[in-house]
Amino acid sequence: xxxxxxxxSHVHTAIKNxxxxxxxxxxxVNKTRPPKPTPPPVPASSCNEIFQKQRTAKSQVYTLMLGSxxxxxxxxxGDFGCGSGGWTPVMKTDGTKKTFHYSSRFxxxxxxxxxAGGTTGFxxxxxxxxxxxxxxxxxxxxxxxxxxxxxxxxxxxxxSSLYALIADGTYRALSLGRNKWKSLIGPQASLQRNCNxxxxxxxxxxxxxxxxxxIIANQENNCSTCDSRIGFGTGGxxxxxxxxxxxxxxxPDNGIKHIKAMGYILVQ
Length: 268
Prior knowledge:
The protein is an alpha+beta fold. 19% of the residues lie in helices and 34% in strands. Strands 1, 2, 3, 4, 5, 6 and 13 form a seven-stranded antiparallel beta sheet that branches. The protein starts with a helix and ends with a strand.
Protein backbone atom coordinates (compact mmCIF):
# COMPACT_ATOMS: atom_id res chain seq x y z
CA UNK A 1 0.00 0.00 0.00
CA UNK A 2 2.80 2.39 1.01
CA UNK A 3 4.65 1.46 -2.18
CA UNK A 4 1.66 2.38 -4.34
CA UNK A 5 1.35 5.76 -2.63
CA UNK A 6 5.00 6.48 -3.30
CA UNK A 7 4.62 5.48 -6.95
CA UNK A 8 1.51 7.66 -7.35
CA SER A 9 3.37 10.58 -5.85
CA HIS A 10 6.27 10.14 -8.26
CA VAL A 11 3.90 9.92 -11.24
CA HIS A 12 2.02 13.05 -10.15
CA THR A 13 5.28 14.96 -9.73
CA ALA A 14 6.48 13.82 -13.15
CA ILE A 15 3.25 14.90 -14.78
CA LYS A 16 3.43 18.32 -13.10
CA ASN A 17 7.04 18.74 -14.23
CA UNK A 18 6.03 17.76 -17.76
CA UNK A 19 3.14 20.23 -17.76
CA UNK A 20 5.46 22.99 -16.56
CA UNK A 21 8.01 22.23 -19.27
CA UNK A 22 5.25 22.15 -21.88
CA UNK A 23 3.91 25.55 -20.73
CA UNK A 24 7.42 26.99 -20.84
CA UNK A 25 7.95 25.59 -24.33
CA UNK A 26 4.65 27.11 -25.60
CA UNK A 27 5.57 30.47 -24.07
CA UNK A 28 8.98 30.33 -25.73
CA VAL A 29 7.46 29.52 -29.14
CA ASN A 30 4.95 32.37 -28.81
CA LYS A 31 7.71 34.74 -27.79
CA THR A 32 9.97 33.89 -30.72
CA ARG A 33 7.22 33.60 -33.34
CA PRO A 34 7.27 36.69 -35.63
CA PRO A 35 4.14 38.86 -35.28
CA LYS A 36 1.56 38.67 -38.02
CA PRO A 37 2.34 41.33 -40.63
CA THR A 38 0.04 44.36 -40.60
CA PRO A 39 -1.51 44.81 -44.04
CA PRO A 40 -0.57 48.09 -45.69
CA PRO A 41 -3.29 50.77 -45.61
CA VAL A 42 -5.52 50.91 -48.67
CA PRO A 43 -4.78 54.10 -50.66
CA ALA A 44 -7.49 56.76 -50.74
CA SER A 45 -9.69 56.95 -53.83
CA SER A 46 -9.53 60.76 -54.13
CA CYS A 47 -7.50 63.73 -52.98
CA ASN A 48 -10.48 65.02 -51.01
CA GLU A 49 -10.61 61.77 -49.03
CA ILE A 50 -7.03 62.45 -47.93
CA PHE A 51 -7.88 66.05 -47.10
CA GLN A 52 -10.91 65.08 -45.01
CA LYS A 53 -8.80 62.68 -42.96
CA GLN A 54 -5.89 65.08 -42.57
CA ARG A 55 -6.83 68.76 -42.90
CA THR A 56 -3.17 69.79 -42.77
CA ALA A 57 -2.27 67.64 -45.79
CA LYS A 58 0.05 69.48 -48.18
CA SER A 59 -0.19 69.77 -51.94
CA GLN A 60 2.09 67.03 -53.22
CA VAL A 61 2.13 63.64 -54.95
CA TYR A 62 -0.03 60.96 -53.28
CA THR A 63 -0.93 57.45 -54.37
CA LEU A 64 -4.63 57.00 -55.14
CA MET A 65 -6.55 53.80 -55.78
CA LEU A 66 -8.31 54.56 -59.05
CA GLY A 67 -10.32 51.50 -59.99
CA SER A 68 -7.94 48.60 -59.47
CA UNK A 69 -4.76 50.62 -60.00
CA UNK A 70 -2.50 52.53 -57.64
CA UNK A 71 -1.80 55.80 -59.45
CA UNK A 72 0.52 58.58 -58.21
CA UNK A 73 -1.12 61.98 -58.69
CA UNK A 74 -0.43 65.51 -57.56
CA UNK A 75 -3.21 66.42 -55.12
CA UNK A 76 -3.98 70.12 -54.84
CA UNK A 77 -4.93 70.78 -51.22
CA GLY A 78 -6.62 73.89 -49.91
CA ASP A 79 -7.92 76.94 -51.77
CA PHE A 80 -5.82 77.81 -54.82
CA GLY A 81 -8.79 79.46 -56.53
CA CYS A 82 -11.55 76.83 -56.45
CA GLY A 83 -12.29 76.67 -52.73
CA SER A 84 -10.99 74.57 -49.87
CA GLY A 85 -10.64 70.81 -49.90
CA GLY A 86 -8.65 68.23 -51.80
CA TRP A 87 -8.79 68.44 -55.59
CA THR A 88 -8.14 65.39 -57.78
CA PRO A 89 -6.59 66.13 -61.20
CA VAL A 90 -8.40 64.65 -64.20
CA MET A 91 -6.96 66.28 -67.33
CA LYS A 92 -4.49 68.88 -68.50
CA THR A 93 -5.05 70.07 -72.07
CA ASP A 94 -2.82 72.22 -74.25
CA GLY A 95 -4.83 74.46 -76.59
CA THR A 96 -1.97 74.52 -79.11
CA LYS A 97 -2.16 70.73 -79.60
CA LYS A 98 -4.76 68.39 -81.12
CA THR A 99 -4.55 65.79 -78.34
CA PHE A 100 -7.85 66.85 -76.75
CA HIS A 101 -9.61 68.32 -79.78
CA TYR A 102 -13.41 68.01 -79.67
CA SER A 103 -13.25 64.97 -81.96
CA SER A 104 -10.48 63.23 -79.98
CA ARG A 105 -11.26 59.68 -78.83
CA PHE A 106 -9.96 60.62 -75.37
CA UNK A 107 -13.30 62.23 -74.54
CA UNK A 108 -15.22 59.01 -75.19
CA UNK A 109 -12.84 56.23 -74.13
CA UNK A 110 -11.28 54.94 -70.92
CA UNK A 111 -7.66 55.18 -71.98
CA UNK A 112 -5.06 57.22 -70.14
CA UNK A 113 -2.63 59.66 -71.68
CA UNK A 114 0.79 60.47 -70.19
CA UNK A 115 0.24 59.37 -66.57
CA ALA A 116 3.46 61.14 -65.56
CA GLY A 117 1.79 64.45 -66.34
CA GLY A 118 -0.61 63.82 -63.46
CA THR A 119 2.22 64.20 -60.94
CA THR A 120 3.52 67.63 -61.99
CA GLY A 121 0.83 70.13 -60.97
CA PHE A 122 -0.16 73.17 -62.99
CA UNK A 123 2.36 72.97 -65.81
CA UNK A 124 2.30 72.40 -69.58
CA UNK A 125 2.34 68.58 -69.57
CA UNK A 126 -0.87 67.21 -71.03
CA UNK A 127 -2.45 64.26 -69.25
CA UNK A 128 -5.60 62.21 -68.90
CA UNK A 129 -5.89 60.15 -65.71
CA UNK A 130 -8.17 57.23 -64.71
CA UNK A 131 -9.97 59.76 -62.51
CA UNK A 132 -11.77 60.73 -65.75
CA UNK A 133 -13.96 57.64 -65.42
CA UNK A 134 -13.34 56.48 -61.84
CA UNK A 135 -13.84 59.52 -59.60
CA UNK A 136 -17.23 60.62 -58.27
CA UNK A 137 -17.61 64.34 -57.51
CA UNK A 138 -19.91 67.21 -56.59
CA UNK A 139 -17.67 70.00 -57.93
CA UNK A 140 -15.53 70.55 -61.02
CA UNK A 141 -12.63 73.00 -60.97
CA UNK A 142 -11.68 74.46 -64.37
CA UNK A 143 -8.50 76.45 -64.85
CA UNK A 144 -6.99 78.27 -67.82
CA UNK A 145 -3.56 79.79 -68.24
CA UNK A 146 -2.60 81.88 -71.24
CA UNK A 147 0.43 83.53 -69.72
CA UNK A 148 1.69 83.91 -66.17
CA UNK A 149 -1.79 83.93 -64.63
CA UNK A 150 -4.03 80.91 -64.09
CA UNK A 151 -7.71 81.70 -63.56
CA UNK A 152 -10.26 79.28 -62.14
CA UNK A 153 -13.96 78.59 -62.29
CA UNK A 154 -16.03 76.14 -60.19
CA UNK A 155 -18.99 74.13 -61.51
CA UNK A 156 -21.26 72.56 -58.90
CA UNK A 157 -22.46 69.32 -60.42
CA UNK A 158 -22.95 65.83 -59.00
CA UNK A 159 -21.82 62.97 -61.22
CA SER A 160 -20.33 59.50 -60.98
CA SER A 161 -17.47 60.70 -63.22
CA LEU A 162 -16.60 63.25 -65.88
CA TYR A 163 -16.77 60.39 -68.38
CA ALA A 164 -20.45 59.97 -67.47
CA LEU A 165 -21.12 63.59 -68.43
CA ILE A 166 -19.16 63.69 -71.69
CA ALA A 167 -18.43 60.29 -73.27
CA ASP A 168 -21.85 59.68 -74.84
CA GLY A 169 -21.83 63.05 -76.64
CA THR A 170 -25.16 64.14 -75.14
CA TYR A 171 -25.58 67.87 -74.55
CA ARG A 172 -25.93 68.67 -70.84
CA ALA A 173 -26.70 72.27 -69.99
CA LEU A 174 -25.13 74.59 -67.42
CA SER A 175 -26.24 78.08 -66.40
CA LEU A 176 -23.15 79.84 -65.10
CA GLY A 177 -23.49 82.96 -67.23
CA ARG A 178 -21.20 84.26 -69.96
CA ASN A 179 -19.17 86.44 -67.61
CA LYS A 180 -18.17 83.41 -65.54
CA TRP A 181 -16.76 81.72 -68.62
CA LYS A 182 -15.02 84.92 -69.71
CA SER A 183 -13.35 85.10 -66.30
CA LEU A 184 -11.25 82.06 -67.27
CA ILE A 185 -9.51 84.19 -69.91
CA GLY A 186 -9.53 87.52 -68.09
CA PRO A 187 -9.77 91.04 -69.56
CA GLN A 188 -8.95 89.84 -73.08
CA ALA A 189 -11.95 87.48 -73.27
CA SER A 190 -14.44 88.03 -76.05
CA LEU A 191 -17.72 86.42 -77.10
CA GLN A 192 -20.54 87.21 -79.46
CA ARG A 193 -23.61 88.44 -77.64
CA ASN A 194 -26.30 85.89 -78.50
CA CYS A 195 -27.04 82.19 -78.04
CA ASN A 196 -24.70 81.72 -75.02
CA UNK A 197 -25.25 77.97 -74.97
CA UNK A 198 -23.15 76.43 -72.20
CA UNK A 199 -22.48 73.06 -70.67
CA UNK A 200 -21.06 69.74 -71.89
CA UNK A 201 -20.86 68.55 -75.52
CA UNK A 202 -21.72 71.85 -77.21
CA UNK A 203 -22.29 71.93 -80.96
CA UNK A 204 -23.52 74.53 -83.41
CA UNK A 205 -23.12 73.36 -86.99
CA UNK A 206 -20.48 70.72 -87.67
CA UNK A 207 -17.94 73.17 -89.09
CA UNK A 208 -18.54 75.91 -86.52
CA UNK A 209 -17.74 76.30 -82.82
CA UNK A 210 -17.95 73.31 -80.48
CA UNK A 211 -16.70 72.46 -77.02
CA UNK A 212 -16.72 69.48 -74.69
CA UNK A 213 -16.94 71.84 -71.71
CA UNK A 214 -17.65 75.55 -72.14
CA ILE A 215 -19.81 78.14 -73.88
CA ILE A 216 -20.54 78.97 -77.53
CA ALA A 217 -22.09 82.22 -78.78
CA ASN A 218 -23.36 83.87 -81.97
CA GLN A 219 -23.93 87.36 -83.36
CA GLU A 220 -27.31 86.21 -84.68
CA ASN A 221 -30.23 85.41 -82.42
CA ASN A 222 -29.80 81.64 -82.69
CA CYS A 223 -27.26 78.90 -81.92
CA SER A 224 -26.92 77.53 -85.44
CA THR A 225 -23.87 79.44 -86.67
CA CYS A 226 -21.78 80.26 -83.59
CA ASP A 227 -18.42 81.85 -84.34
CA SER A 228 -17.16 82.25 -80.78
CA ARG A 229 -16.39 80.00 -77.84
CA ILE A 230 -14.54 79.60 -74.57
CA GLY A 231 -13.87 76.10 -73.40
CA PHE A 232 -12.04 72.80 -73.19
CA GLY A 233 -11.95 70.19 -75.93
CA THR A 234 -12.92 72.76 -78.53
CA GLY A 235 -12.82 72.83 -82.32
CA GLY A 236 -14.45 74.17 -85.47
CA UNK A 237 -14.29 77.59 -87.06
CA UNK A 238 -12.82 80.15 -86.90
CA UNK A 239 -9.68 78.21 -85.84
CA UNK A 240 -10.08 74.45 -85.60
CA UNK A 241 -6.56 74.08 -84.21
CA UNK A 242 -7.49 75.92 -81.00
CA UNK A 243 -8.51 73.09 -78.63
CA UNK A 244 -8.60 75.03 -75.34
CA UNK A 245 -9.12 78.76 -74.90
CA UNK A 246 -11.08 81.54 -76.61
CA UNK A 247 -12.06 82.04 -80.25
CA UNK A 248 -14.21 84.99 -81.35
CA UNK A 249 -15.04 86.55 -84.73
CA UNK A 250 -18.01 88.31 -86.40
CA UNK A 251 -18.90 91.15 -84.04
CA PRO A 252 -17.81 89.79 -80.64
CA ASP A 253 -18.12 92.06 -77.60
CA ASN A 254 -14.37 92.58 -77.03
CA GLY A 255 -12.80 92.25 -80.45
CA ILE A 256 -11.61 89.32 -82.54
CA LYS A 257 -9.64 86.82 -80.45
CA HIS A 258 -7.55 83.71 -81.05
CA ILE A 259 -6.33 82.81 -77.57
CA LYS A 260 -4.91 79.33 -76.98
CA ALA A 261 -4.65 78.37 -73.31
CA MET A 262 -3.38 75.59 -71.10
CA GLY A 263 -6.41 74.01 -69.45
CA TYR A 264 -6.71 72.21 -66.10
CA ILE A 265 -9.64 70.04 -65.01
CA LEU A 266 -9.94 68.80 -61.41
CA VAL A 267 -12.78 67.36 -59.36
CA GLN A 268 -13.86 67.14 -55.74
